[in-house]
Amino acid sequence: MLSFQKISLIMFFLMMASYGYAQEQTSFDFSLKLSAEDRFFFNQGLYEGQERNFLSLAVQPEYSIKWRNEKYLLKMNLFGRYDQFDARRTHADIRELYWRLADNSHELSIGVKQVFWGVTESAHIVNVINQIDIIESFDGEEKLGQPMVHYSYQTRAGTFEAFYMPYFRRPTYPGEPGRLRTPFVINDEMIAFESSKGTRRTDLAFRWSHYIGKFDFGISHFYGTSRQPLLNSLENFRPVFALVNQTGIDVQATTGPMLWKLEWIYNFNEIKDYAALAAGFEYTFGNIDGKGLDIGVLSEYLFDSRDELTLTSLQNDFFVGTRLGFNNTQDSQVLAGAILDVDHGTALVSVEASQRIKESWKIELEGRFFSNTSDDEFVYFIRRDSFLRLAISRYF
Amino acid sequence: MKKNAVLSLLLFLSNVFAIAQSAEDRGLEIAQKAVEADKGFESSKVSLKMILANKHGQESERFLENQTLELHDDGDKSLIIFHSPKDVEGTATLTFTHKLTSDDQWLYLPAVKRVKRISSDNKSGPFMGSEFAYEDLSSQEVEKYRYKFLREDNINGIKTYVVERYPNDPKSGYTKQIVWYHQENFRIEKTEYYDRKGALMKTLSFNNYKQYLNKHWRAGELVMENHLSGKKTRLIFENYKFKTGLKDQDFSQNSLARAGK
Questions:
Q1: C-beta of residue A266 within 8 angstroms of C-beta of residue A244
Q2: Closest to A319 in 3D by CA, of A277, A284, A355
Q3: pLDDT of residue A23 exceeding 70
Q4: Banded model confidence at residue A1, pLDDT cuts 50, 70, 90
Q5: ipTM associated with this complex
Q6: E strands along A226-346, which residues?
């Protein structure tokens, strides 16, 4: 049986071998991102052994080779972080490592890839292919690489895609010194799978996506081990990765400065079937000062029919936010928003800001603030974990 | 007597009208000839260097790539790929221009592998922090403006037709533009942009023209000067290729993601 590591190793050697096999019309691209980061938590942790201030370093090299007029591609994108205290957050991942053939309307990829589906901003319920890199990103925007065979066929009636995924990526949860965690540390042994094959079960997914005039839409189906765990109960926290059939729909209508967005899923599983919805709009007041300042106003409603047996805490919530784009040479941006729970009054306020410095530096600020956390929700476990993150990156 | 006065007034008015009409017709005709003169390149690829200068003359550079597919019944399709600054490397945009309706536009974000449909309404905003607005760089379809011929002029020893054009789209950042067309080959030598208040805002100069395939004139350098901010952006075009074999399916959301990183 091939493990994730072995598949990756084979891909790596294939890539090296192809380097020697380089032909005419071959292009190489190498880039590197180095980051230093500090995460500061305003309060002492709720649980013993938790730290307050974490320094860390991250490295992300990317390498690609395209040949035969970009018909073939080999790509490698690796990630590693060293964390001062949390050995779990000191981690490495293969974000991407794949071979791709693109021939007219056909596209075939084999290897480790990242896939994004969906349209909304505050939650990504339709996007189910990749496991979230939980220790890396609070908002779930960072994903673990997923081994797959991915075939895509582009027609006049849209794009049809099929995914064959032979391996499940287990999430890594924070260690004892880490924050944003449950009262006890979740070890690999505590993770349960519904499938007797565990991480070796083959998952399948299909998607049809298309665009007609103002509308962009997709219909997708996933069959396999859910990337998101279900909880048996809040007292005995033990994540269970169930076998699910999940159908998703995502639609965006682009009408002038207004974008209407909708994502909906229905999930069939042995524990409890559920539906979830994320729907809202984004309106942009463009160039309001004549110097390029864009102000966007976003609002989304989030619904999930599972009650507390979810890690998402987004059962009946409103998201309101604003996006500022300065369109200046430093590319300054701010995204600020709040997710408010309608039933319990829990609020999560977020601020993300970034700006380029000179040609190849970037500074990023992230703040997450929990307030009024209800003990009926998962966020109650992390109610004292409001934090600020400051990262400085150098690009090569 | 009275009758005659009315008649002559009518005659006079119709004359004025005829002259006005002909200035508009002539303006339109020149714009159409300019499009006609460039027909048949099928597709093109070009590398761009963008040099941004602030009012103190401090410069920063960006590198990008542009692919265009020529269409006749509808506006052109284009793909822009950003190679630098490094933090946005691999970002790409796909635009389907339309002659009468709003353009369709998608953005590819390489960090999250996301293709996002974006609003094309914000055309007056700056492109990558430069002095070019999105609308300055989008496909210049004849139908996007109304025209009026002004005069003939000599600039840099070149005989030109001077045409005023008014954007049809109310979301344009301009009330009018004045365009200097070369009298023989109808390439544009200079454009002046007038803002919402009617004041001269920017001047675009076209330098180092070269002819490709014995037909298509392309400037090697565009210089956009903003008279209000004192900032300047230079666009340098390198390695122009025409009839590249690019097809319609090379301008899809899939190819957008492939072109990015």
A1: no
A2: A277
A3: no
A4: very low
A5: 0.92
A6: 230-231, 239-241, 243-255, 258-269, 274-285, 294-304, 316-325, 333-341
Mean predicted confidence (pLDDT) in A275-283: 96
Q: Percent of chain B beyond pLDDT 70?
A: 92
Hey, what are A67's tokens? 């040949």
Closest CA to A287 of A345, A253, A328, A341: A328
- One-letter-per-residue 3-state SS of B182-243: ECCCCCEEEEEEEECCCCEEEEEEEEEEEEECCCEEEEEEEEEEECCCCCEEEEEEEEEEEC
Give the number of other CB atoms < 10 A from CB of residue A370.
18
What is the domain-level CATH number for residue A228? 2.40.160.100
* Token pair of A155 as six digits: 């027609």
> What CA–CA distance (Å, rounded) separates A18 from A346?
53
Q: What is the average per-residue pLDDT within B106-110?
A: 94
CATH number of B35-40+47-73+121-244: 2.50.20.10
The domain in which residue A61 lies consists of 4-395
Q: Give the count of beta carbons closer than 10 Å to the beta carbon of residue B222.
A: 22
How near does any CA of chain A get to the CA of B245, in Å? 11
| A166 upstream amide cis, omega within 30 of 0 | no
Which of 134-193 (A) contact B at CB < 8 A? Answer: 141, 152, 154, 159
**Residue A33 near residue A59, CB atoms below 8 Å:** yes
As a whole number of angstroms, the distance between CA B14 and CA B20 comes to: 10
3-state class percentages of chain A: helix first, strand second, coil last, to nearest 5: 5, 55, 40
Q: In terms of Cα–Cα distance, which of A110, A80, A115 is closest to A15?
A: A110
d(CA B180, CA B191): 6
CB count, 10 Å around CB of B148?
19
* Close Cβ partners of A316 (under 8 Å, ≥ 6 residues apart): A302, A303, A304, A341, A342, A343
β-strand pairing of A192-193 with A239-241: parallel
pLDDT of B199-220, one tens digit each?
A: 999 999 999 999 999 999 999 9
Name the strands in the sheet holding A192-193, side by side, starting at the edge strand that comes first in the sequence: A192-193, A239-241, A230-231
The amino acid at A79: F
Residue B131 has phi, psi (to 5 degrees) of -85, -5
pLDDT digits (tens, 9 = 90+) for A115-124: 999 999 999 9
What's the CA gap between B205 and B225, in Å, rounded?
A: 8
Reading the block at residue A262, the tokens are 């909708």
Q: What is the tally of structural domains in chain A?
A: 1
pLDDT tier for residue A365 given thresholds of 50, 70 and 90: very high
A396 touching chain B per CB within 8 A: yes
| Residue B254 with chain A: CB contacts under 8 Å | 107, 152, 154, 159
Q: Would you tell me which residues 93-112 of chain A have a C-beta closer than 8 angstroms to some C-beta of chain B?
A: 102, 104-105, 107
The average pLDDT across A219-225 equals 97
Query: How many Å apart are CA A335 and CA B142, to the nearest integer?
Result: 38
**Interface A:B, Cβ pairs < 8 A:** 104
Write the single-letter amino acid at A185. Answer: V
| Rounded Cα gap, residues A320 and A298, in angstroms | 6
**CB of B261 less than 8 A from some CB of A:** yes
CA distance B39 to A122: 46
Residues 6+ apart with CB under 8 A from A263: A118, A119, A120, A123, A124, A125, A126, A248, A249, A250, A277, A278, A279
Q: With an 8 Å Cβ cutoff, are A257 and B249 in contact?
A: no
Helix (H, G, I), strand (E, B), or coil: what is residue A106? Answer: strand
